[in-house]
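Bit of a strange request maybe. I'm writing a small parser for structure token strings and I need a real example to test against, not something I typed by hand. Could someone generate the tokens for this chain?
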Amino acid sequence: MDFVNVTLSALRIPDPLTVLFVAIGLGLVIFFHELGHFLVAKWCGVYVERFSIGFGAPILSWKWGETEYALGWLPFGGYVKMLGQDDMDPAQMTDDHVAENPRSYTAKNVPQRMAIISAGVIMNIITGTLFFVLVFTWGIMKVDRVAGYVQVGMPAWRNGIRSGDTITSINGGAVDDFDDITRRTTLSRGPIHITGHHEDGQTFDMTLTPEISGIRKIIGIGPAHSLTVIEPTDQAGITPTVPGTAAATADIKFGDKITAVSGQTVKDAQELLSVLNKKAGDAVDFEITRLDSDQKPKTLSVTVPAEPFVELGVKMGMGKIVAMRKDSIAEKAGLKAGDRIAKVNGQDVGVDLDPFRLTETFSKNAGQPVTVTVRRETEGEPETLELTMVPEDRGAWSEPPIAEFSPISIPSIGVAYHLVPTVLSVTEGSPAAEKVNPRDTIISMKLIPEPGAPKDSLGDQPQSILIGEKNWAYAFWMLQEYGRTRSVQLTVKPATADPEHTVDITPAPSKDWYLPTTRGIRFSVLETLRKADSIPQAAAMGVRYTINSVEDIYLTLRGLFTRDISPKGLSGPIGIAKLAYTFASVGLTHFVLFLGIISINLAVINFLPIPVLDGGHMVFLLWEGLSRKKPSEAVVATATYCGLAFVLGLFVFVIYLDIFVSKI
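Reply from user aminoacidic:
Good idea to test on real output. This should exercise your parser:
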């Protein structure tokens, strides 16, 4: 009996043609597996009673020759019922009377039965490889291996990886696209060895240790963006620009491509951000290439005004340095994690300088000596040190805190710090004035949709952010993303004996502080075409992808046993069906790639040494071949029922994960 976790019963999809497409595709994977068993069984002269796709009572069946062909109503797999081999009646495999029939499965010698049992797995390996060969013959767009967002304080950031860097290998294995980075990181044990090159062409070679975030290991990088505006999607609230931003009223369309900014040509997202950073307070002219109704490119210029920060009017306390970049300006100057920056060039941080804007102070002094006064805790009295450093020319907000619990980065010197959630001061006449007081502690922030405001990517739901000791930077950055169409509700704990309470605030745009970002334009992820130049090359790429897929599955199983990988990441029938639909919605090539991956998974999982699966049968055959005798009926029956109970229990478990457990 062969199990594959596929079903469409719990999937609600508005497009019936895509659902049918998915059902046929997944059905083919099962069909090819069972076809392998069937053909070899016939070749060995075994009487095949039934060939079924799906379990349970047949909803459709017919007889051709001596075999009944059926389509079962439970689309969880399939089976080939042979005389002398029935997982529901394991006694047949040890019945001497059945074995006397020369056409029974048990009458065949061990090598023949091994060939029959392994044929399904071999067929899936072959068809999976062929699926991959087709994909690389046609060509497929994959997310490029270039780092876009580098999460502040995470292993990649600490070891010097920056936006625009290209990763070429991990642990000696070539990295062809961003999926390779994700899977090699997730499936790793201990430190990983990474090579690549920075945007300026300088190579790097480093060893770092991934950290667990949620249910998987990460090094803290995200894919780079292109210069092309996103394409339309079915998701509600997704527009070419973020609602309420400077670009929202500009003539920016889906699929537009930026080629220059105010006369300065840009070749990638990093160059674009560099230009926008220097022109943060100015209106800029985007030179755009757009396809007309005849699909012919035309060039036009679109002016987008400056994008002010959205503010509440509160200044928070300066926290300690929590992360440092290896070999950074700050590290070389003697700054250490745990230090607190007290002054910069004689100006008090928290009084003269807003701790949140400290990164801008250093960026404005790039190339010039800066005196930093630091307070360092020691076993005795705290020390006050004066350090001198020369900041690099790096954008102040080139490493924004867009992930939960991210500290604020000062890219020009390579340090990161948290803000204390205690209010230092409140700006007179600001949105928070008379609602929040100095020394109040901010407990949480809720972003609430304004009535009549355009929908954003969060839809109609409020977004709550727990601040704690480490999350004000993220909350403030979320305010920049959604604060133009949402009001804010802060939960505040007063410094006095007054009880904790909430205050409603309408954020206001700053009059002199501007975001050095894309001004609200949503860009698509940077992709690369993976396409073979010839059939032999496509075959080589397909075989390599197959080998990598098999290796990944075994590494996943190892990670589950060693607890390096959370079982929450497993997908059952519902999850696989959703994934299948997603891939099919993208296009035929991506769906064929998915079918290849499912084929390899089916092959490997079915060959695990678990009774009722092909691998379990192979264990019995190995025993028989070595001992020259069949295992007893009691052993076979007990093992089979235990295996069946395990598989059914696992099936229920992964369905539970699909329904109730987040995969993030």
